[in-house]
Specification:
Layout: H1 19-40, H2 46-50, H3 52-62, E1 77-80, H4 86-96, H5 102-106, H6 136-155, E2 167-171, H7 173-177, H8 179-190, E3 196-202, E4 205-206, E5 209-210, H9 219-226, E6 229-234, H10 238-249, E7 256-261, H11 283-293, H12 305-335, H13 337-348, E8 365-367, H14 368-382, E9 386-390, H15 394-397, E10 417-419, H16 424-437, E11 441-447, H17 451-464, E12 469-473, H18 491-496, E13 502-504, H19 509-521, E14 527-530, E15 535-537, H20 546-553, E16 555-559, E17 567-571, H21 575-584, E18 591-596, H22 599-604, H23 607-614, E19 619-623, E20 641-642, H24 653-659, H25 664-672
Parallel strand pairs: 1-2, 2-3, 3-7, 6-7, 9-10, 9-11, 11-12, 12-14, 13-14, 17-18, 17-19, 19-20
Antiparallel strand pairs: 4-5, 8-15, 16-18
Helix pairs in contact: 1-3, 1-4, 1-11, 1-12, 3-4, 3-10, 6-8, 6-16, 8-16, 12-13, 14-19, 16-17, 21-25
């Protein structure tokens, strides 16, 4: 007969969990986590062993959720920002009844397992977001909390609240050291996101040793300065955790950080040390930990029977909670048929009405950022769930939303324009969080050069297959006077290199409209719309089905010639009009110009499609105001790469182009060679 270690708890007030049940769940979490990590010979046991009580009480008593329906719209969200502790999450998901089986647990970190090394959204039932890169999980949680407030303001009535849930996250020292969490926490405090509750697992240990070797600031004061409510407690007093959460909920105008003092690797022989952080405990240490817990030392993946029994007893309560919400939702729908239509449109990304989109002609001469701004505002009238803004560049990015309920703020939760502040990394995480929450189509914007600040989050968005929209203006050396620090040359290629990211660089106003249409249709990947600061001359399209070709192949024939071309120019963005002008300066050659708005789609197209676009030309020249790496496989020779493989320089845009020999005349001279 085994004797698992009992915690000294009284019967919880107002709920059904008692001393035996909380201990059974926490013990089982530790047992499953130790064995899964040991079997995989890889993983991070410190967090699952150290924070098991929090997971037990969170999923058993605090969260409003229903494991039988992990996508229930009004569920509470939980984000394990400290994603390296993934076995903590997998264990509690399994025990509480999500679709995580014992066989899944036993195949932790193996190819094809739903129990991945770090939690992955869309792979594991009950996982709300892909987490692991530290600080990003809690930053996405801020986006989720923001989405909740936006939808609550839009759909709740005086009589009924159909959007009324909390967002929780668990962070460790690593999350709080990463800068993105500071950006996100500052924003959350400024926006008074009172339904965001973050638990800080304060074990004071990281991989290299005690955290005070690099991290000794007063976190409580730091978060108070952000505008948060800060509470403190003991990780191993579940009653206290419940009381702290209730206290957090009483403050509606501040997010809450609950600091829980803990011991990393609790119950293992090396508890409290860095040895338990990021490597299996070892067989002897696992046995010793099991002995300390009072469970069978020779039995792997042991679950205390009472843990299963406890969660089994919860099923009816959870189902009833969702059923009551469904009845409330049905009553709300009957009382508010127009709101219900809007709800469905929001959650299905459907247009509401047929608000006219701008009409651009082939003769229009304008910056593509201006065309983008006009298109965005029109789309916001069609799609009422489009929300977003800029990293303090709304004017230059042309993302000021008109007639869209104003700016999102504590006093205006219906506002659809978001002032993200100079927080590019967190801004991108908010977009992901809103996508993950559901019901909104978010966008963000900044200069293309500052994509470097948010790239790690864009990568996660691509991994999660989220359809966020990223607007990047000021896309080349034509930024001009701001100089090489602000003139992107390598950025486009680096964005195109991220799998599942669609990068669209329209050549004129008409293409910009099509780029937005493509972006709005995306369901499983982020889309980057890359636009100019400088004016660009529109042009007549030789291919009358050009917009269809753009959507299908990413490219089309912008300028054709009679017969087989001598030279075909592959160009993108503003360089398409440069190529057309250069062709006009080179009448002795038969020249075709192909606009490649979506290089990746063009690159992946069937060879027959590419051959048709190139048209049998003996010579192919590639033109783009950036590095040549993407184009090398298409240009006939290295000298036919009309690109910029160096940094720019300061000066008026036209003068910079002349200095770098990147004008229509320079391209014409190359064509004549």
């Amino acid at each position: 007969m085994f004797l698992y270690v009992a915690l000294k708890l009284s019967k919880f007030v107002g709920n059904s969990m008692n001393e035996s049940e909380i201990n059974a769940v926490a013990t089982s979490i530790r047992s499953l986590s130790m064995d899964a990590i040991q079997k995989a010979n890889s993983g991070h046991p410190g967090t699952p062993l150290g924070a098991a009580e929090l997971a037990a009480v969170l999923y058993g008593e605090i969260l409003k959720h229903n494991p039988a329906d992990s996508k229930w719209a009004d569920r509470d969200r939980f984000v394990l920002s400290a994603g390296h502790g993934s076995m903590l999450l997998y264990s509690i998901l399994h025990l509480s009844g999500y679709k995580v089986t014992m066989d899944d647990i036993k195949s932790f970190r193996q190819v094809g397992s739903v129990c991945c090394g770090h939690p992955e959204y869309g792979v594991t039932d009950g996982v709300e977001c892909t987490a692991g890169p530290l600080g990003q999980g809690v930053s996405m949680a801020v986006g989720m909390a923001m989405a909740e407030t936006m939808l609550a303001a839009r759909f709740n009535t005086e009589k009924r609240k159909i959007v009324d849930h909390y967002t929780y996250s668990l962070v460790g020292e690593g999350c709080l050291e990463e800068g993105v969490s500071s950006e996100a926490s500052s924003f959350a405090g400024t926006q008074k996101l009172g339904k965001l509750i973050v638990f800080y697992d304060r074990n004071k240990i990281s991989i290299d040793g005690p955290t005070d070797i690099t991290f000794d600031e007063d976190i409580a004061k730091r978060y108070e300065a952000y505008g948060w409510q800060v509470l403190t407690g003991d990780m191993y007093k579940p009653v206290e955790i419940i009381e702290l959460v209730e206290k957090a909920k009483k403050v509606s105008d501040k997010p809450t950080l609950i600091i829980l003092e803990s011991t990393i690797g609790k119950f293992s022989p090396n508890q409290g040390s860095a040895d338990t952080h990021g490597a299996p405990l070892g067989e002897e240490n696992v046995k010793a930990a099991k002995k300390a817990l009072g469970i069978p030392e020779d039995k792997e993946f042991f679950v205390v029977p009472e843990a299963y029994e406890y969660f089994s007893s919860k099923k009816a309560q959870w189902a009833s909670c969702e059923d009551n919400w469904n009845k409330e939702f049905d009553a709300w729908s009957n009382e508010n048929p127009e709101l219900r239509k809007m709800w469905d449109a929001f959650h299905n990304n459907e247009a509401m009405g047929d608000f006219p989109l701008p009409e651009f002609s082939s003769t229009d001469k304008m910056a593509t950022r201006d065309a983008s701004g006009k298109t965005l505002n029109a789309l916001c009238q069609r799609y009422k769930n489009i929300v977003g803004g800029s990293a303090d560049l709304a004017g230059p990015n042309k993302t000021i939303l008109k007639d869209c309920d104003g700016i999102f703020a504590p006093e205006n939760r219906k506002g659809r324009m978001i002032e993200y502040g100079i927080r590019e990394f967190a801004m991108s995480a908010f977009v992901s969080g809103m996508c993950l929450h559901g019901g909104l189509r978010p966008f963000c914007a900044t200069f293309l050069i500052f994509a470097d600040y948010l790239r790690p989050q864009l990568r996660l968005a691509a991994l999660m297959k989220l359809p966020g929209i990223y607007i990047f203006s000021h896309d080349s050396i034509y930024v001009g006077e701001d100089g090489p620090t602000h003139q992107p040359v390598e950025t486009l290629s680096s964005l195109r290199a991220i799998p599942n990211v669609q990068v669209l660089r329209p050549a004129d106003a008409q293409e910009t409209l099509e780029a937005w249409k493509i972006a709005c249709k995306s369901e499983d990947h982020p889309v980057c719309i890359v636009i100019t600061r400088q004016t660009v001359q529109g042009f007549s399209k030789s291919d009358k089905n050009w917009n269809k070709k753009l959507s299908e192949h990413g490219a089309y024939v912008a300028l054709n010639c009679d017969g087989v071309p001598d030279i075909t120019i592959l160009a993108a963005g503003s360089e398409v009009s440069t190529a057309i002008e250069a062709a006009g300066l080179t009448p002795e050659k038969k020249i075709r110009v192909v606009s490649v708005m979506d290089f990746t789609k063009f690159d992946l197209a069937d060879q027959s499609v590419k051959n048709s676009l190139i048209g049998g030309a003996a010579r192919v020249v590639c033109a783009e105001a950036g590095i040549s790496s993407d184009w090398k496989s298409y240009a006939t020779s290295r000298s036919d790469l009309f690109c910029i493989d160096r940094f720019g320089t300061s000066g008026p845009a036209a003068k910079v182009a002349e200095y770098l020999h990147f004008t229509a005349k320079d391209l014409s001279d190359l064509l004549k060679k």
